Amino acid sequence: MKIAVVTDSTSYLTPQEVADNDIHVVPIPVIIDGKVYQEGVDITTKDFYANMKSFKSFPSTSQPPVGEMIEFYNKLGDQGYDAVISIHLASTISGFYNSLENMRDAVDNIKLVPYDSQITVRLMGYLAIEASRMAKAGHTVEEIIARLDDLRASMGEYFIVDDLQNLVRGGRLSNASAFIGSVLRIKPILTFDEKHEIVAFEKVRSTKKALARVEHLFAEEKAKINYPLRAIIVQGNNLEAAEAWKQKLQQDYPEMPIDITYFGPVIGAHLGDKSLALAWLKDIDKAY
């Protein structure tokens, strides 16, 4: 069986990774001042953050049109694929996954298998890379999904944001009322809860204290497991801070690979400027 692997642009894979792993990437629309842009196609991350302060309204996001997605999957069938595993951002922050589930029967030229990553950004990107590797090695759809479930269960993350306004306005913060009115001089730490919804986890008085708190939380989680981890620092127009944080973490965990990646326009539209995150999952490059 020939299996295609699809993900969306919020995986923030590099062009080289996409090419090397034969991954198909669907751009997610971001709407800025009434104009629709396709993430990674006609708007870059650099341009998004450079112009953020001049936006007349808060940017928002949308889903790729259903008709275009049906056509896209059927074309993969025309290319000789028997099945497609389509890995996308959490259904708790986007309706895209549910839309794919609803269109399964409309895709008649290939077996469509939507997969809810329950997360986004580079964590989801690693799911797509692993799925592609397994597909190339001849594994079945069922074997690949089981592996993705295992990786997904190993994921964790904490976000530090400067401003909750975008998350609140977009309805992406499930416990927003607990933080409204108390965000001045506060660095909120966010995470995904057991329902895979973004929640405000703690209030911290400074970025320095927030970083230290996240490091402590990560150390607690790492102490509970017996397999190698890969850590990921995600930054939204905050590369200098991300690099400094990586240097600190690499001293604490010299054996652990640590990547730096970014929040592109779609996720940045909700997290805002200067956000940081520490995320982790099982290291897909090591045996365990």
Automatic annotation (TrEMBL):
SUPFAM superfamilies (UniProt xref): DAK1/DegV-like
Pfam families: DegV
Record's signal peptide: none
InterPro entries in alphabetical order: DegV (IPR003797), DegV_C (IPR043168), DegV_domain_contain (IPR050270)
Keywords of this entry: Lipid-binding
Summary of the function given for this chain in its UniProt record: May bind long-chain fatty acids, such as palmitate, and may play a role in lipid transport or fatty acid metabolism.
Record protein name field: DegV family protein
